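To: structure desk
From: M.T.
Subject: fold request, one chain
Message: Could you run this one when you get a chance? Sequence is below, nothing fancy, just the single chain.
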Amino acid sequence: MRPFELAAPATVGEATGSTGTFLAGGTTLVDLMKLNVVTPHRVLDINGLPLHGIDTGDGLRIGALERMADIAAHPGVYPVISRALLLSASQQLRNMASIGGNLMQRTRCTYFRDVSMPCNRREPGSGCPATTGTNRMHAVFGTSGSCVATHASDVAVALAALDAEVRLAGPDGERTVRLTDFYRTPAGSPEIEHDLRQGELITEIVVPRLDWAGRSTYVKVRDRQSYEFALCSAAVAMDVRDGIVADVRVAAGGVATVPWRLPSVEAALRGRPATEESFAVAAALATDGAKPLADNAFKLSLLPRTIVRALLEVTERSR
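Reply: Done. Structure tokens follow.
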């Protein structure tokens, strides 16, 4: 780790008006600093800012500095969000990590984290060895010749399924961005991962009210039961009335460079019977447009099965 200056701004305005890298729980940033993947000259400790609180009065509002463990344990948080959080990292890390930091975490691509290797996200124009190298964990959606790294956050997938928004504060004021618009696929500029402008800070996550989101779940498939990133995951919320799917939300993780919403699957489910057969027909559409690599074509069969499993879980809980 290289030397850096540490400051602790007292207000959001002071933080966004300063130059530096924001530090909350530090569970991602400190790791990357130790590896010299990121080498900030100045770090801004924002833990003293008034960005806390969980409000479930009308929808869900979560302060960016709320810890993952506290959000997961809150009784008013939708099950898909709680489950995504509880399947993330370890209990110790969930006690430290902030929700805002989780949404901003960098990819776990081994090439990105190894400074001896080229990586377009870390060093634009240097290349992407994952396209021809070891790529079992990598993306099949939203990729480009410049980058095939998967997005790491579990809870971002759940929030994307629920049409969540992030509120941002910066030198030019405040604005709100839909989470699915906040993240950027790599295209030709993989180093630009999101729509955060210079000096901006996530202050709050807002999930619109969805009365039937209590019937939701998050299914995560991984190589081991705990402390592992997703090979594939599915966030599902579903409204079933008289055995028919009235409405549904579906998003996938572990398979794309950003949290991957699946509107074609949703459209195929609406108005259909809430049965395993209908779920399988709709889930088969999830792989449309996929671009598998040498080692990860198995995700094309794993993703539909994961979605069906999540839909069946919600169906059982609805009975």
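Reply (cont.): The first strand starts at residue 5 and ends at 7. Let me know if you need anything else for the meeting.
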